[in-house]
From TrEMBL, chains A, B:
Any one biological process term the GO annotation gives: tyrosine biosynthetic process
Catalytic reaction equation(s): prephenate + NAD(+) = 3-(4-hydroxyphenyl)pyruvate + CO2 + NADH
Protein name per the record: prephenate dehydrogenase
One Pfam short name: PDH_N
Domain Prephenate/arogenate dehydrogenase: 6-294
Coiled-coil intervals, chain numbering: none
Enzyme class: oxidoreductase
Similarity comment: family membership: Belongs to the prephenate/arogenate dehydrogenase family.
């Protein structure tokens, strides 16, 4: 593929930024990849692994002459970074971000973007429970959605950013920022909060020792622990900045949970059976859409022992 | 390995029973495997795949002359099956079950077990979201725990059953039935109810269309849909029969969830960050105990595309 941006500055060098760097290099999408991270160790790792061609000790220096700047820091840190880099952005450059919340990021970043620079907020729906500059890999975005919330940004600049995302293997969709935040509250933010809560409850329970919770986790609980192992700073910021939508979906969740709890208390088996049957269909839809594997247990058995029988 | 039981009767031919049959055959642990399922189709599948040597049209016929009888039906059906087979059990035989709840199964089954027959309730902590006679495989129990709640059963009979479970690759632990039900309420029953609830909420939400929930499920939600795709009848029975422990853990869960919800509403980032940091440790424990893979996303990426970078 052809080079889409001559110089890409990655601000933040965690899972998403390092995966972008690997993907851009694998497909020849960027002329030069410049990196900045607050942590000197992360900057050193980026050079050691080689996914950045160059690192800088400040974000302001890293963005000089870049035609694409990617803000890949926790959502709560976006505003301060934008303020710092604003005066150093090249005319005609594009600034994007990869935050899990869009309205709050746009509100924090947009005021610092000078005239003549394109700001196109974005969010790749991809990730793992691992974090940091060593956790990235080139195929992270393969067949995943990358949502852009351009809010009227220049069409040519949007098309160019879209080409980059597609070049890294993603499917691109555009939507309104408020709608994004509601959809993600359903598919991501509330599930994460619930998983964190359940793991915390298990951790608290003194009658059930740690080793029992751990040994018998294969019964379902271990799936929750994967989600609850995600980066704490990133998730703190998500909940603080997508407060309204998360609280809205949480309210609905609690309402449904209470209805099922009541059915258990009253012994209403028909209600439970009907509910549990309905939820099977969504799984089939996700597998048919190529967004998950049909292999039992996510194909996890294959990681441990060959499948028999 | 040597034959441990000359004739094993499997009552119910779903995921667990068919996996046991595959495992017993692979390791030569059973002389003959006889099967019974209510559904004629399941019986035909058992013969077609060949994991049963013989099937019978009634449970009573299937248990004749068996030295091990395995009750592998939904928990709510255990009592009626036990009543039916009771008069046909061979003296000296062992009856076990694989239900996810132990106190209710013991209460339903024990009254029907004649003098001279050993009843040892059990529960393999293993499974996938798939169900039915085609879903079984020989390595399902590999490195998983198999809990026995013998409640004073004959020591030699317990040792023999333990040898069978270990022969199929499982690790065996014995515990009190009430303690089992509480532990499983934490590691399995409550997580399942929560996953079912979250998937139901997403399904209900009219502002967020089905295709958006499905397309953007990779953000975490798809993990919940796997759990919520489990067998509805089995799970209805679990909640109806482990009511007290499930309601107890649900109460604690709701309490914690409300505390986190309040922290979000008040913008208390420190509370959230501390909570999310604590839950990371449990995941590490589970991986160190060999109960899950450390590969990102359960190694799911490997099912879709080769890992790069």
């Amino acid at each position: 593929m052809a080079v889409i941006y001559e110089r890409v500055a990655l601000i933040g060098l965690g899972l998403i930024a390092s995966s972008m760097a690997h993907a851009m290099k694998a497909k020849g999408l960027a002329g030069e990849v410049v990196g900045y991270a607050k942590s000197a160790e992360s900057r050193a790792v980026a050079l050691e692994i080689g996914f950045c061609d160059r690192v800088e000790e400040t974000a302001a220096k890293a963005v000089v002459g870049a035609d694409l700047v990617v803000l890949a820091v926790p959502v709560g840190a976006m505003g301060a970074i934008a303020e710092e880099i604003g005066p150093h952005l090249a005319p005609g450059a594009t600034v994007t971000d990869v935050g899990s919340v869009k309205q709050a990021v746009i509100a924090a970043v947009a005021p610092h973007i000078p005239e003549g620079v394109h700001f196109i907020a974005g969010h790749p729906i991809a990730g793992t429970e691992h974090s940091g500059p060593r956790s990235g890999f080139a195929t992270l975005f393969q067949n995943r959605w990358w949502l852009l919330t351009p809010q009227g940004a220049d069409a040519a600049a949007v098309a160019r950013l879209r080409a980059l995302c597609e070049g890294m293997g993603a499917k691109v969709d555009e939507m309104d920022a408020a709608h994004h935040d509601l959809v993600l509250a359903v598919t991501s933010h509330t599930p994460h909060l619930i998983a964190y809560t359940m793991v915390g409850v298990a951790d608290d329970l003194r009658r059930v020792t740690d080793s029992e919770v751990i040994n018998y986790s294969a019964a379902g609980f271990r799936d929750f622990t994967r989600i609850a192992a995600s980066d704490p700073t990133m998730w703190r910021d998500v909940f603080l900045t997508n407060k309204e939508a998360t609280l809205d979906i949480l309210g609905r969740f609690t309402e449904e949970l209470f209805a099922l709890q009541r059915a258990i208390r009253l012994g209403d088996g028909d209600h439970l059976h009907a509910y549990f049957t309905r939820t099977r269909a969504i799984r089939r839809g996700i597998i048919e859409a190529g967004q998950d594997t049909a292999a039992p247990d996510f194909g996890r058995a294959a990681q441990v022992a060959p499948k028999g029988g």
